[in-house]
Amino acid sequence: MQAQTDLLWVEKYRPKKIDDITGNDEAKALFLEWLKNKRHTKKAVLLYGPPGVGKTALVLSASRELGFSVIEMNASDTRSEKAINAIAKPATSYKALDNFTENAKVSGNVLFLDEVDGIAGNEDRGGVNAILKIIEASLVPIIMAANDPDIEKLRPLKKECLLIRFQQVRIPLIIALLQKICLLEHITAEFEALERIAQNSKGDVRSAINDLQSLSEENHRLSLQDTMMLTSRNKDISMDETLRRYFSTQNIAETSTMLAFSSVDYDDFLLSISDNLPKRYTDLTELAKAYDYISHADLFRGRIGTENWHLLKYFYNALAEASAVNPQSYKPFTFVTPPIRIITLFWTKGKRTMLDTICGKIGAQCHVSHKTAKHDFVPYIRAILQKKPKSPLVVWFKFTPEEVDFLTKMSRY
């Protein structure tokens, strides 16, 4: 672990190797045995257990060490049958995978569906059946991760998977990790303080590291007294629940506290707030004022980047101001989730991937960049193929029938 300045410690000390992952040795060994076996008894594996125990870290580090390229989907954002098929179907054939990764490694590829329990909502009809069909036809290993595998809709999925359970990481192991980080960060910490942080984390390594950084980074000292302010984190609160609490809070202090102990993605949450503000404030003056605060939050998020985390409190404060423009006017409403921009990007991902593949073929034959292929070549090739679908260009560029169909029917490039 190499020390770096001004980074969120969760990212700074993210496991790079399998041996760096704390705890769950039995689960790690079982997963590695499955991943190394070219003749899987089960074509898919489901890693399940509480958040922050190393499920995703194991998938990424093990794939890296064994030479696999990971094609990752977050099932909580891509839930419906149509949405899942758009990415997962082409990603599970060897031929299509060459288009997904420019530098395919020797061991091949794996498809990773994180937060697969996120497909179990009312709006996700057909999602599980789509995954079952993908598992049946897949030519590559499929890895899934879930916090709660006991959701009724996941029962058919569990029958087709090797189930590997992850336990909460034991307190002594978390303490040992915190001590190692303290040594690297030159922090003098009382053992009792580290013990309290570890106990408070409830087996969640991420939250333990976050607490250690927030309490000790400024003074490089940590006493038991410093940990008395700790409260249990709400690690399993969904985006909808976080939005409900955000918009229904009565004052800035309450909102800031809620945000500080929420685990939703900062950028997704900022976009979701922006999408839902018109539903929250019907008065145009109030709405304008709220958007002004959101613009300040967006400014601070940009300045934070991946390094300047000391500015996070200003990001929270600006978001809190937007929620409290007029607390008395709150009335429950149906939230727009996930963020509209993410939905748009997702639904166009298949088209963007297809166009990127086409531009790659044009670039290889004509010795031009992707950008030049897209802007200078595609419009003319499109016009030619619309008039003559069986043009010799199809053979020369090695276009597939699907790519020809895409070019002739595309409305914009």
Chart the SSEs and their pairings:
Elements: H1 9-12, H2 25-36, E1 44-48, H3 55-66, E2 69-74, H4 81-91, H5 94-100, E3 109-114, H6 127-137, E4 142-146, H7 155-159, E5 161-165, H8 171-185, E6 188-189, H9 191-201, H10 205-216, E7 221-222, H11 239-248, H12 252-260, H13 266-280, H14 284-304, H15 312-323, H16 340-347, H17 349-366, H18 370-387, H19 392-397, H20 401-409
Helix pairs in contact: 2-3, 4-6, 8-9, 9-10, 12-15, 13-14, 14-15, 17-18, 18-20
Give an account of the 3D structure.
This protein is α/β, with parallel strands linked by helices and 413 residues long. The chain folds into four domains: 24-165, P-loop containing nucleotide triphosphate hydrolases (Rossmann fold, 3-Layer(aba) Sandwich); 170-234, Orthogonal Bundle (Helicase, Ruva Protein, domain 3), CATH 1.10.8.60; 237-335; 349-409, no CATH class. It has 20 helices and seven strands. It has helices spanning 9-12, 25-36, 55-66, 81-91, 94-100, 127-137, 155-159, 171-185, 191-201, 205-216, 239-248, 252-260, 266-280, 284-304, 312-323, 340-347, 349-366, 370-387, 392-397, 401-409; strands at residues 44-48, 69-74, 109-114, 142-146, 161-165, 188-189, 221-222. The strands form two sheets. Strands 2-3-4-1-5 form a five-stranded parallel beta sheet, with helices on both faces. The chain has a two-stranded parallel sheet with strand order 6-7. Helix 4 packs parallel to helix 6 and helix 9 (191-201) crosses helix 10. It starts with 8 loop residues before the first helix and ends with a helix.
